[in-house]
Amino acid sequence: MKIAVLPGDGIGPEIVAQAVRVLEVLRTEGLKIEIEAAPLGGAAYDQYGAPYPEFTRKICRAADAVLLGAVGGPQYDTLDRPLRPERGLLGIRKDLGLFANLRPAVLFPELANGSTLKPEVISGLDIMIIRDLTGDIHFGEPRGMRTNDRGEREAFNTMIYTEPEIRRIAHVAFGIAMKRDKKLCSVDKANVLEVSEFWKEIFTDVAREYPQVQLSHMYVDNAAMQLVRNPKQFDVMVTTNLFGDILSDEASMLTGSIGMLASASLNESKKGLYEPSHGSAPDIAGKNVANPLATILSVAMMMRYTFNNIEAADRIENAVKKVLEKGFRTGDIFEPGMQKLSCSGMGNQVVAALG
Ligand SMILES: NC(=O)C1=CN([C@@H]2O[C@H](COP(=O)(O)OP(=O)(O)OC[C@H]3O[C@@H](n4cnc5c(N)ncnc54)[C@H](O)[C@@H]3O)[C@@H](O)[C@H]2O)C=CC1
Ligand SMILES: CC(C)CC(=O)C(=O)O
Ligand SMILES: [Mg+2]
């Protein structure tokens, strides 16, 4: 298992350090794990003058899987756009063809009482959010700023999807729905956007190849509302890059915290990049208080999706469950009566629970 580790910026190095400890436990027990570290984002800009430098690209291309923390920070916000940390993240996603982003919003029952939502609304929650990751307004050209005919400055981005891009994410979504409850909700804004209308047309066409799957369509504004009103109506949701970015952050709060939401970004060959769904959290960086569980659960996804090592994946997820059962919490999921831990303290507990 050749794993590239990219700690990134902000809390990235802190949370990744805990996830690497989990990998080290597996290695000590006999899994052949090779780890190579490289910078991405702001850290890469500082070292190499580019957010996704050749050094990192080579290591990631040679690896079977990539473990990433997060990128970005206010100190980089004034850089020219192509040099910003976030472009490094878009760059690696595009370079490795990581078009299928899986974000499982699963509630550990131990966290049901601490949620801002009523336990009956969220108990048993298990939604798979599938987001296209290499198309949409994030990548569409042209993009930029200009002065229009009236002499006013304006900025523009292009929302665009090709038919093959929609078809391939549709097949991933239907395939996953087939393995679950055979219910797929495609989220769009087809009442306004041509891109969404096309998306809906292609999904309806692909659905003919999966007659056992019940396909529904929902506008994104309604989906955002339904996610907090009655999230358990969803089993698998699939949507575009921008809508998926927003809906998955929203869904993370159904599981207790953005610090709980793992993710896998896969390409056609199951090479994967695994990262928490959150960002670099500059407000808490360097304080050793971030929740490392989303990153640790991303390692479980790596074992499941890239290495097909279901036993290791289950073990990591069970270790997280055990730690939560014992009442250990980081600040973001803390509730009275529980024991508050630091980021590394949570890592210690997960490592102990793996044993
Ligand atoms: N995948 C990535 O690398 C992503 C990077 N970003 C970048 O991260 C930077 C900060 O972005 P924000 O909008 O503030 O989003 P963010 O996700 O970094 O933080 C939002 C809020 O959630 C909290 N939070 C996030 N992760 C946490 C964790 N593991 N434990 C406890 N609390 C946690 C933060 O403290 C903050 O209050 C920006 O530069 C942004 O572009 C944002 C999202 C994804
Ligand atoms: C910073 C963005 C490029 C990434 C993001 O918000 C995400 O992948 O969820
Ligand atoms: Mg996001």
Description of the structure:
With 355 residues, the chain is an alpha/beta fold. The chain has two domains: 1-101 and 261-355, Isopropylmalate Dehydrogenase (3-Layer(aba) Sandwich), CATH 3.40.718; 115-131 and 161-255, Response regulator (Rossmann fold), CATH 3.40.50.2300. It is built from twelve helices and 14 strands. It has helices at residues 12-28, 42-48, 54-62, 85-95, 119-122, 163-179, 194-207, 220-229, 241-252, 293-305, 310-325, 343-354, and strands spanning 2-8, 34-37, 65-70, 100-106, 126-132, 144-147, 153-156, 183-188, 214-219, 236-239, 264-266, 272-274, 328-329, 339-340. A ten-stranded mixed β-sheet has the order 2-1-3-12-11-4-5-10-8-9, with helices on both faces. Strands 6-7 form a two-stranded antiparallel ribbon. Bound molecules: 1,4-dihydronicotinamide adenine dinucleotide, 2-OXO-4-methylpentanoic acid (COI) and magnesium ion. Residues 11, 15, 70-73, 86, 89, 258-259, 275, 278-284, 290-291, 294, 332 line the site of 1,4-dihydronicotinamide adenine dinucleotide (NAI).
